[in-house]
Amino acid sequence: MAADTVQSNASLSHLIQQEMHHVLDLTKALEAEKDALGRNDHEGLVGVIAQKQAIIDGLNQVDQRRGQLLRGAGYGSDQAGIESYIGDQPEPKRQQLRDLWRQLLRAVSECQQKNLVNGSIIGMNLRHCAHAVSILCGHDPRQELYDPRGNASSTQPHGRPIKA
């Protein structure tokens, strides 16, 4: 095996491990975000958002370096490229890289699920706020805006805006 291939394998292994570190940090940040959402902790959310952005910036940097390494070795920088690169490596390095890559993909999948849950919580909170604003503006939030045929309803909102 050529010295540059050995160096690429070590570098790729190191980059995947760095990505894994960032993804685990992102998992923790998403858990903190969910906790802050549950407590309606606005200041906590602001901190978590800044933390998530820093982690994502780090992930993007590692992803760029991994892409450069793969392209430099003659492979694509996408998932198919990395899997092709891994498949072309001799054993036992192939298995080590494959295990690291699969571990990273599982961790990324977990992050995506946590992010979906947090997005659902945010969506639910937005609907509650819109409902409250509708009531405060004197609109009946249960009033249908369209009839069964899809035409705009001609009924006017009931009530008057609530004034504090």
Give a written overview of the molecule.
- This protein is an all-alpha fold and 164 residues long.
- It has a domain at 3-108: FlgN-like (Methane Monooxygenase Hydroxylase, Chain G, domain 1, Up-down Bundle), CATH 1.20.58.
- The protein is 74% helix and 0% strand.
- It contains four helices and no strands.
- Helix 1 packs antiparallel against helix 2 and helix 1 runs parallel beside helix 4 (93-136).
- The mean pLDDT is 85.
List the helices and strands and how they pair.
Elements: H1 3-39, H2 42-72, H3 79-87, H4 93-136
Summarize the structure.
With 164 residues, the protein is mostly helical.
Question: If you average the pLDDT, what whole number results?
Answer: 85
Uncertain stretches of 5 or more adjacent residues? none
Described by strand count, sense and barrel closure, the largest sheet is:
none
| Secondary-structure arrangement, i.e. CATH architecture of one domain | Up-down Bundle
Percent of residues in helices comes to over 70%
Total strands: the figure is 0
Strand content: under 5%
